[in-house]
Design goal:
Elements lengths: L1 H11 L12 E3 L8 E9 L6 E10 L11 E4 L27 E4 L16 H5 L3 H14 L9 H14 L5 E6 L1 H12 L4 E7 L12 H17 L1 H6 L3 H13 L3 E6 L6 E6 L1 H11 L3 H4 L2 H9 L4 H7 L13 H11 L6 H6 L8 H12 L12 E10 L7 H8 L2 E9 L12 H10 L19 E3 L2 E2 L2
Parallel strand pairs: 4-5, 4-6, 6-7, 7-10, 10-11
Antiparallel strand pairs: 1-2, 2-3, 3-5, 8-9, 12-13
């Protein structure tokens, strides 16, 4: 009787019952020198419909004989990042865990090798366009897509995780999620609690967090950076008027875009580059994710304030240099955010969250979401998570700072919170964190001593064109 009830529950949830374990194949993927195992798993875009999407899964088998039966499933961030994009974490965050456990990376539907939903982009052309022209190109891309955007939700991605677990014939699994992956991990744990042994959540999104409403958190991170520069003798001496220079740059660009004639930092060709306040602020917000990157900001701001924009433009183009591979899936990002976040991004929330760093983000997203025309996913109050949970936060994180982890912990029965004071968005690969991950997975009921996270040093400030201080 129990097996019949279980089968009925799985079918009702849209997850087909598994037969024999799915066959995997040897594969080589960017970011890892060794051969791994890969699985292509057909899944249905909607429950009860035929399987029309091939989900890509990468398995890094445990290094030791007699591996533990509970693998670690890795859920990447974004939304829009794929598991295959973060395979280099095998040699950093998961190097100790992999000794005794399989590591499973899932390319969430619509990302990476799982039918990536993206728009073509040329960084050189975009730099010469207005923000309105860039958004118009994005709207044309959305309109040209044939993808059923309503099928690309967090709940659907959680169903896919369960399909992978069953296809590989695993029992209980451990989940590691980073950034948006923490939202997905929590969704899976609530939908399929019987399949979860532990959760490790790094850069924790609270269950009620609205992704575009990050103005206050980003502003707090920028204010911390300015304060740290003021307390650092060398930084304060090099940039005594840093905040005033930043405010003046924002005001200048608010008055109108600048056309910069300069040598392209990548090609050395002389060309015109359009700089707007949105592009300035988006770059600054992006840099705050990493303290090492953020410590370059005073130099970039000071240089731009003096009319020397090349270093800032070079940093803005940095991500575009790798746009061909590993870039987030833009349309998948919009499909999730437009359905799950923007309906809750009310005018009252926008007013309470006001910051120059995000003031144009909500307006631009609303325009793109109107073109996406994806139905809203009703918000469901979070239920409790019974499995042991380890929460990791960086005190300098501009988007998921420690207070977000504390909000998430309110709905967890067995939870430990650890904070790294000199870290931004992502802790797991730094300092002693890989050892702590292994210790938690081996003994999830034992208290983890996270004092060693305090030993991760703060990066030095960049004081000149030669780079950061030694």
């Amino acid at each position: 009787m129990k097996s019949i009830l279980l089968l009925g529950a799985l079918l009702a949830a849209g997850v087909p019952a598994a037969a024999a374990p799915a066959a995997t194949r040897s594969c080589h993927l960017p970011g890892v020198e060794e051969a791994l195992r890969c699985l292509t798993l057909p899944v249905a875009l909607e429950p009860g419909k035929p399987a029309t999407l091939n989900l890509h899964v990468t398995i890094a088998p445990a290094l030791r004989q007699g591996a533990r039966p509970d693998p670690l499933f890795v859920l990447a961030g974004g939304p829009g990042e794929a598991g295959s994009d973060v395979l280099p974490l095998l040699s950093t965050a998961f190097r100790r865990v992999r000794a005794t456990r399989d590591i499973v990376f899932i390319d969430q539907r619509g990302t990476g090798l799982s039918g990536k939903l993206d728009c073509p982009s040329d960084a050189d052309e975009d730099a010469q366009l207005s923000d309105a022209d860039v958004d118009a190109a994005m709207r044309r891309c959305i309109a040209a897509s044939k993808a059923p955007f309503a099928a690309y939700t967090t709940a659907a991605a959680a169903r896919d995780i369960e399909s992978v677990r069953r296809a590989l014939d695993y029992g209980k699994i451990n989940l590691w999620g980073g950034s948006y992956g923490t939202r997905l991990a929590q969704a899976y744990a609530r939908a399929y609690p019987a399949g979860v042994r532990t959760l490790t959540l790094d850069a924790v999104a609270a269950p009620d967090q609205v992704i575009p409403a990050g103005g206050r958190d980003a502003q707090a991170a920028l204010d911390q950076l300015f304060a740290q520069c003021a307390r650092d003798a060398a930084c304060a001496r090099a940039y005594p008027h840093l905040r005033a220079e930043f405010d003046a740059l924002v005001a200048k660009l608010d008055a109108g875009p600048l056309t910069l004639h300069l040598a392209d930092p990548r090609t050395a060709r002389e060309e015109d580059v359009t700089m707007t306040s949105a592009r300035l602020l988006d770059t600054v917000r992006n840099m705050l994710y990493s303290p090492a990157d953020a410590r370059r900001l005073p130099f970039l701001v000071h240089s731009a304030s003096a009319g020397h924009w090349q270093p800032f433009v070079a940093r803005r183009n940095l991500a575009a240099d790798f746009a061909a591979e590993g870039s987030p899936a833009t349309l998948l990002h919009l499909a999730v955010v437009c359905a799950e976040d923007m309906p809750r991004f009310t005018p009252a929330l926008a007013a309470a969250d006001a910051s120059p760093l995000t003031r144009t983000l909500g307006e631009r997203l609303r325009g793109l979401c109107r073109t996406m025309n994806v139905p809203a996913v009703p918000y469901a109050a979070p239920t409790r998570i019974a499995a042991p949970v380890l929460l990791l936060s960086g005190a300098l994180d501009p988007v998921t700072p420690p207070h977000r982890a504390r909000d998430a912990a309110r709905f967890m029965d067995h939870v430990q919170l650890l904070t790294a004071p000199n870290v931004g968005h992502g802790v797991s690969q730094l300092g002693c964190a890989p050892r702590l991950l292994r210790a938690f997975l081996d003994r999830p009921e034992t208290k983890i001593d996270g004092a060693c996270l305090n030993e991760i040093p703060a990066p030095t400030f960049q004081l000149g064109a030669a780079g950061p201080q030694p």
